[in-house]
Amino acid sequence: MKSVQPKGSHFIDGAYVDDTAGREISCVYAATGETVATLHAATPAIVEAAIASAERAQKEWAALAPVARGRVLRRVADLLVERNAELSELESIDTGKPIQETLVADATSGAEALEYYAGLAATLTGETVPLGGDFVYTIREPLGVCLGIGAWNYPTQIAAWKAAPALACGNAMVFKPSEVTPLCALKLAELFIEAGAPAGLFNVVNGYGDAAASMVTDPRIAKVSLTGSVPTGQKVYAAAAEGLRHVTMELGGKSPLIIFEDADLENAISAAINANFYSTGQICSNGTRVFVHENIVEDFIERLVERSRTAILGDPLDPDTQIGPMITDAQRKKVLDYIRIGQEEGAELILGGHAPEGPGFFIEPTIFRNVTDEMTIAREEIFGPVLSILTFKDEDEVVARANDTQFGLAAGLFTKDFTRAHRVVAQLQAGTCWINEYNLTPVEAPFGGVKMSGVGRENSKAAIEHYSQVKSVYVAMGDVEAAF
Ligand SMILES: NC(=O)C1=CN([C@@H]2O[C@H](COP(=O)(O)OP(=O)(O)OC[C@H]3O[C@@H](n4cnc5c(N)ncnc54)[C@H](O)[C@@H]3O)[C@@H](O)[C@H]2O)C=CC1
User: Fold this and answer.
1) Same domain (yes/no): 110, 192
2) In whole angstroms, how far apart are CA 57 and each of 121, 155, 195, 198, 365?
3) Strand, helix or coil at 64?
4) Which helix (DSSP H) or strand (DSSP E) does residue 336 occupy?
5) CATH (domain of 326)
6) Alpha-carbon distance 407 to 388, whole Å?
7) Cα separation, 206 vs 46, whole angstroms
8) Looking at the structure, do residues 225 and 351 belong to the same domain, yes or no?
């Protein structure tokens, strides 16, 4: 494999830097287990350099005309599109996701976020509030230096989804990628410099959880946006509270996908496949509890299994590969444990369930039927290619069961009855819902969770609220009245 060793472990103040005193980070190609790059986790000196340069750059950036800021973001979007082929290859090496996915879902999704917020940058104005003679005007201000902390499943997309709205609002960002996918965000940082952003505006600090934790409580950090698991979210939210910092939390889920009796079966099956096996099931919003009406469950299962059997597992860089490995061996073990527990608790394994022989962290697409609500595989987030089929009889019952979870990230339903579709969606406790689709997350629409799945929204105009603050200015036009 060609070398993907970056010129340094971190990208700070416009250049690669390293401090070999930091603990080693091995970047492993999940398809073979081979180490493809070795980096060093941030030391306190690296963290200090990153935050200090971001603080400097933020002042320069916020002083630019918004349209000029937008122009830089737009150039980054163009560069992401132009370099999509090489960036997708790197994404596949960093994560193990198949190249046929990364070519359409990672740098391209990042580019869309940058293009969207590039356009929005110059429109972020305040409002005027008439009060008779006096009036109030508002100014939308940046927060300062924002900290982004990423998960491993979408390293380019997560970095871009956080950086684009943050920078459009006039903030700077320090981004800490997941320690298992440290490569892609560094490339994004290079592109910001190439596009003309001030040095320090978007810094990447690689490291483990402790490096991110040390930044969360730094007095110069105004906001923290995390994509990660619920336990990490709870820790980061609590730590950020010490300084009353703004937070956005994009956390885990156990989302329902409901297939009503009148659903278009082939479309529903396509959605169930996408909602469970895309990115080898490593997607937070996956619809892993597939509720199928009892009258159609046999037909549904027959076709689902028939189609899922044809999935091609293989080298992520092979254009024919449809399913890549899990991110790490540890994650694969965790998923295999859930599969074992599912069988022990009485669910019926009808496809997959094994790790194929040979190198790499592969796991077969796995389908369980006869899953019941209290089983562990129906309650906990697995974060792997494991689809659970549950059956239901009527609408009220399935809504109650769908909502019976601590999570609330996403939900989907399939029906041809639009009255029912809207009635059910209105009752579902989820931040993002799909009617007759699943897992599409266009930048134009808000994305995020309710309940334990998170706080705040990414994408769309909604993200602007989470990366800016409003100053209210009262203007008096007459004399000041006083009691004496
Ligand atoms: N809602 C969403 O948008 C998404 C949520 N996820 C969730 O993320 C999880 C899988 O990703 P992982 O990387 O394993 O999650 P994780 O929660 O272990 O780590 C996420 C990030 O937080 C950092 N971190 C760990 N401890 C920290 C601490 N005490 N303070 C500050 N930062 C800390 C890690 O280094 C990593 O960069 C899944 O549970 C999944 O549901 C993943 C992708 C998208």
Assistant:
1) yes
2) 17, 23, 15, 6, 46
3) coil
4) helix 329-344
5) 3.40.309.10
6) 17
7) 9
8) no
Residue 413 is inside which H or E element, if any?
A: strand 410-414
Q: Distances from the Cα of 386 to the Cαs of 220, 267, 276, 287, 475, in angstroms?
A: 42, 19, 7, 10, 60
What is the count of structural domains for the chain? 2
46 is a domain residue:
yes
Which residue blocks in 19-137 are alpha helix, DSSP H? 44-62, 66-82, 84-95, 99-105, 107-121
How many A from CA of 189 to the centre of ligand 1?
Answer: 21
Q: With respect to residue 54, please indicate whether it lies within any of the assigned structural domains.
A: yes
The protein residue with its alpha carbon nearest to ligand 1, atom 35, reads: 209
374 Cβ neighbours under 8 A, 6+ residues apart: none
Strands 432-435 and 410-414: parallel
Q: How far apart are CA 263 and CA 303, in angstroms?
A: 14
User: How far does residue 184's CA lie from ligand 1's centre (Å)?
Assistant: 16
Q: Give me the domain span that covers residue 279.
A: 256-435
Q: Give the binding-site residues of ligand 1, using a 6 Å CB cut-off.
A: 149-153, 176, 178-179, 208-209, 212-213, 216, 227-229, 232, 235-236, 250-252, 284, 381, 383, 409, 454
CATH number of the domain enclosing 102: 3.40.605.10
> Could you write out the DSSP letters of every residue in 261-283?
TTS-HHHHHHHHHHHHHGGGG--
Tell me the three state secondary structure of residue 318.
coil
Q: Are 267 and 225 part of one and the same domain?
A: no
> Rounded to whole angstroms, what are the CA distances from 448 to 318, 343, 411, 470?
33, 32, 12, 22
Residue 257 CA, ligand 1 centroid: distance in Å: 24
Beta-carbon contacts of 395 under 8 Å, excluding residues fewer than 6 positions away, are 260, 420, 423, 424
Give, in order, the Cα–Cα distances in Å from 173 to each of 167, 220, 264.
7, 11, 45
Residue 3 clears pLDDT 90, i.e. is over it? no
Atom 8 of ligand 1, residue of closest alpha carbon: 228
Which atom of ligand 1 approaches the CA of 409 most closely? Answer: 1
User: Tens of pLDDT along 232-259?
Assistant: 999 999 999 999 999 999 999 999 999 9
Which H/E stretch holds residue 366? strand 366-369
At residue 259, the pLDDT reads 98
102 and 161 housed in the same domain: yes
Residue 281 sits in the same domain as residue 369: yes
Same domain, 241 and 264: no
230 shares its domain with 270: no
What residue owns the CA closest to ligand 1's atom 13? Answer: 151
What interface predicted TM-score (ipTM) does this complex get?
Answer: 0.94
Q: For the chain, how far is it from start to end, CA to CA, in angstroms?
A: 82
Q: What is the pLDDT of residues 353-369, one digit of tens each?
A: 999 999 999 999 999 99
Q: Are residues 291 and 244 in the same domain?
A: no
Q: Which pLDDT does position 123 carry in this prediction?
A: 97
What is the spatial order of strands in the sheet that 134-142 belongs to?
A: 128-131, 134-142, 468-475
